[in-house]
Amino acid sequence: MWEVRVRKPARKSVLRAPRPERDRLLRALEEMEREPFTGDIQPLKNQPTAWRRRVGDWRIFFDVYPEQRLVDIVDIHRRTTTTYRQR
Question: What predicted TM-score, i.e. pTM, was given to this entire model?
Answer without folding.
Answer: 0.88
